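Notes continue from the previous slide.

Worked example: a multi-chain complex. Inputs as given:
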Amino acid sequence: MSDSPNQAEIFVDVEPANKTFRIRVENATTVADLVNAILERCEADGINVRRWARDRVGRENVSLVLMRKAQSNAALPPTIEFGRLEPVVQPDERFSLDATAIVG
Amino acid sequence: MARKPLKAAPAASDDRQDRTRRFLGTRALARVERARVLVIGVGAVGNEVAKNLALVGVRRLTLVDPDTVELSNLNRCIFFREGDVGRRKVHVARRALRAAAPATEVVAIARPIQQAPEEVWDADVVALCVDDELARYYVNARLLGMRRPIPVVNGAMGRTWAEATVLVPGQTACLVCLWSQEYQRAVLGEEVRRKCDAFFQGARVKFPTISVLTSLVGAVSSTEVVKLLANSPEELPPAVGKRLRYDVRRHELVVQEIVPNPQCVDAMCRRRRGV
């Protein structure tokens, strides 16, 4: 990654918190690690991201997804590591947290 | 020598598919007419998809849904009327499709997709219109097990948006590539709870929605099905591997790539993609 060989700082838009988080990720950090860290941080601030997602998709179980905004909002799978993303993650690159629709 | 009388071409007004033929072209329309589409879920989105596909000219539709019509379906389902309450959705939809598009042969299967006969999978495209993740999980596994990859168009809606995802499981990301193991466990666990405890039968929270959103999901989904069937990639390229999301709040359309998961929860997905 571009900040240093092993890490980069990125921005993540989190709509329910009405905030953009600046987060340092390492090569081995997975998308799920990052999402869980955001959930914990929001919970500490009294914001329940899962409840927000439930309201948006209408189901008790929700699948949260990280979108890579600079790459046409690519939806990233949870187990992928930031160091394996193609193209390489750029410093200050923007991402956003989203929920997958279920009801058809 | 007596001249043969000229045979008049049918007037545009005599040709039911005149506008479709002008839009798709004769060859692409023929491909659409020959195709077989499996529509899983015949609620509001399934109504729209089946209607659009039949009107475009798909001659062979298989509808699969075990549910019956409820009064609360009528705010958004084009085929259902008050007199249909209590009847099987697939049977009501078949009757309406016969009236709207008599050339379309409709097979109605009033069972969950997990119990549908094997023949339903003889399809060129699957249109997935369910509100049940377990059904998606099952359909995905079936598609991954097919020798011939079958594209699937998955329609769904959020509180303020409509979306359709176009995938070819085994070649692109699959329907569960974005699932975490935790989410997979939750989906399977919810199903076990519903089967074991009568309280959970029908206890699922009802999602607030209006016909506008379900029409949008149906329109985007059926457009992608038609593109796949028409097979005119230069004129009408299908959004394979992508999710199309239209949000009505600010009228935003976002095209998202679905990145395949190297550690997908479905082992067959990993195997088929050689991961």
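Summary box: The longest strand of chain B covers residues 161-167. The mean pLDDT of chain B is 93.
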